[in-house]
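Note to self: keep these together.
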Amino acid sequence: MDDSRGRRRLASQLQKPVAMLTCNFMPPSEHRPSTISHDDVTTLFHEFGHGLHHLLTEVDELEVSGINGVEWDAVELPSQFMENFCWEWEKLQAMTHHVETGEPLPEDLYQKMMRAKNFQSGLFMLRQIEFALFDLRIHHEIVEPDLQKASQRIMATLNEVRSQVAVLHPPSFQRFPQSFSHIFAGGYAAGYYSYKWAEVLSADAYSAFEEDPQNYAAVGQRFWKEILSKGGSRPAIESFKAFRGREPSPEALLRHSGLLEAA
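Structure:
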């Protein structure tokens, strides 16, 4: 997803936003129509969430309309939020058809997909927490000008974090930081935590729909008004609390990851 132009108030008129989704789906062949995998569908819904965030803004200042000005650790909320619809049994029944028989996705295959999605999700979550804690600590604590001493401090910090949260420990000769390009060359320095934090926000936001399934339209209207329409015009945490009526909770993410049973 990318923006072609953002919403803003000009002297004589309101400039409406335009968004683009660039997709790379499998083209049809001579004998078979184009089909897309479930991963493709999830990606489409994810990027469409960014598009909705950009298109449904009601802010007229370009710098904070749509996706502009939204904090780094919250800009993925609408996109990851949309992914949840791709894992609902009723929604998948409506959007899937066998290319030859026309039959919808069978429930036993859906259950296999859910089990595969949550396979070792606890280990993956701990891995993300390990990376995030390591990232925050080295950028906050290590100010050593001597590069050799700084390198030693970095490895010592990583080992301390692993002793706190890791279940599986790599061999001592492993040098993970040297390949952690996200924080040294990818723009995520002191911000890797945003991956997991955005998941907390998006899962918790989606749980509002799960809690009130008879009023999807009303909940969706509130989601638009309090989150999608506000862009970066106010702190993202304020938009979230206006929608949910409370601080974020990790409970929904744990449940969606198969780590907490539904009430």
